Each structure stands twice: as C-alpha cells, then as structure tokens.
Amino acid sequence: MNRENKNGKKVVCVVGTRPEAIKMAPVIRALREAGSSLGVRTLTLATGQHTDMLDGALRTFGLTCDHNLNIMRASQSLDHITTSVLAGAGEYFDATRPDAVLVHGDTTTTFAAALAAFYRHIRVGHVEAGLRSHDMGLPFPEEMNRVLTDRLAEWYYAPTHEASETLEREGVPRDRLWLTGNTVIDALRFILEKKGESGTGRYENEALSALAPGAPFILVTAHRRESWGEAMRRIARAASRVCEQVPGLWAVVPMHKNPAVRETIREILGGRERVVLCDPLDYADFVRCMADCRLILSDSGGVQEEASALRKAVLILRDVTERPEAVERGSGLLVGTDEDKIVNTAVSLLTDGGAMDRLLAKCDPQAFGDGHAAQKIATALLERL
Q1: 266 catalytic, yes or no?
Q2: Is 180 exposed, middle or buried (0-12, 13-18, 19+ CB in 10 A)?
Q3: How are beta strands 9-15 and 67-68 bridged, if at all?
Q4: Catalytic residue among 20, 106, 186, 299
C-alpha cells in the first residue's frame, strides 16, 4: 500500500481496547485506502489498555499498530490508565505531529488521548459520538468519558439519528457533524463476508470444541464495572439456572481478563455441566457464536448493535442503555441484573416461539447503520484535511 506523504498530512487513529480496535479497524482501512492517493498518511497508536486482545483484533482485519504504549499492568486503576495514556499519547503526538487524531467511543483511552491532542491544538475527530445514557454512573466511567470527549472534539461522527440530535441539542454545529452509522456493522460485515469466502463455520478457539456439535447454546458476556461483585454473581447464577431449566441447553461464557470478572464467573460456573468457560474469543469466533447461538445475554454496548444487525435476540444486562435503538428498533430487551428477571425472560424466549417472534418482528437490521460508516468517516475527514 502506498504510504507516501506528499503533502505532509498525517492522521493518528488511537485504540486502547479490543472493542475499539474492532470498531476502528474499518476506519483505518478506509483512511489508508482513500488517503494514500492524496498523500495523507494514517498511523495507528495503540495504548495497550488491553494488550493481546487488542493486537489480535487488529490482526483479524489485516492491521498492526505503528506504535504501542504498552501501559497495561495487573489490576490497573483508572488513574494509571488516564495518566499513562495522557503522557504517552502526548509524547507520540509530539514526535509525529499529526494534523488530526481520531478516537473512538467511550474508553479511558479515548478521553485521555483526546485531551492530549487538545493540549497540542490538534484537531480531534470522535467516532461514535453523541451516545448518552444521561446517568454519569451508568456505565461508569464510560458515560463521563464520552461526554468529555465530545467537549474536546472538533469533528463528530454520530452512529444514529438520536446521537446526532443529541449533539445538535448540545450545541454542535451542523457543519462539524456527520451521521455515519456505526463502524461495528462494517466490521461485522467484513467478518461475515470473510467467513463466506472460507466456506467454513468452524471455531478456531479450542475451548469451543467442548461444545457438543449442533447443541443449542446461549452466549453470555459481562464485564462492566458497575456489574462487579454481587451483580456479576446474579448474572452467573441466572445463566446456570437458564441451562438447568431448558433441556439440552449449553452456555458459552467468554470471560473478560479482569480478575474481578473471572474469579466471580469461575466461582459460580466453573465445573458446571454444559457450560463452556473460555478466554475472550477472537472476533471471527465471536461473530460465529453470535450467529449460531439461540440467545445472547450481555452488558456490552457493541453486542447490542451486532445482535440487532444479525437479528439475534439479546438480553441487555444493564439498567439503562445509551443505545435506545437496540430496544426500540433492534433485538434487545433491557433486563438489568435481577436474577429472576433474567431467568424468566430468557426461558420464555427460548421455549416460547411466539415470544421470540414478537421480539424479532420489530428488529431493523440497519438500526445501527448500513455497513458503510467507515467510508463516510474517511471521506468527511479527508475533505477537511
């Protein structure tokens, strides 16, 4: 790929976590493809808020980072992530002198990198801008991160009409705001097309070989800070009870690498029959699991979008969501972390075909975009450069 820098323009795309890498990968690819002929160089800065999970996600899309701050350490605090990214990204920006910095979503990496760019008068573009739960504690600290990042940004790439309208109400000028759709739909389409080309639906992760061939299963993911402790125990107990109440049902539970999550999950679900506990799946395997499972239980924001695009029912293990489209136009039901509510809702959907049909009847697979968000973002950004 031609990387000449004829006019000296540079864009740095910052990623810190696995979800960021997945959602930014289509943007990086689109910028490199469209920008190379214009002499715009696209660099990828990884902060290492996640390490191997982040690198693996980039590799799935044929990408590697240009520089990695490698900030991750055991039981890292928010203070450590914020200060390490702020200092490390600042040094990288000083060395590379980019004309623009792109950040994504709502992580601590997102906020700290945007702040480092702001301190240097570098223009910031915010991918997935404008999402709001309107509760600074839910999700924590993501809601505050996204609000602060939107205050620091110059260019806003809103994934939905509601996000766009939120930004307008907050005073963002229309000429700095683009409605693009969500880049995770681009990533999802990339994987589905790749899977179709390979002609195989097999899983790469060896842990999934424990899953009986053709067995029905639920996919369970939970990692939010507000779910640590007793809420996580309720989620794990609920997953176990659902498998007990639905004959032959399995559960696949990819465990986040944070010890606060893994220890709780192992304590309750370790050694249970028809439960597969595994490390986080690479994105291709995760997409296959979403497509193959009977039902998803998750507190992830991205999963709400992906499940809707796949028309796969998802129980949202949170009290509020900054993605109301998942409930209004998607395949989601907001159930929180109440154990009985999770169990009763899941069992109803799994055993009552009418209940599942009613949920999916309202689902618009394009509620979060048409799969061309990255190209729209690249075009808008390159025009401004």
Answers
A1: no
A2: buried
A3: unpaired
A4: 106
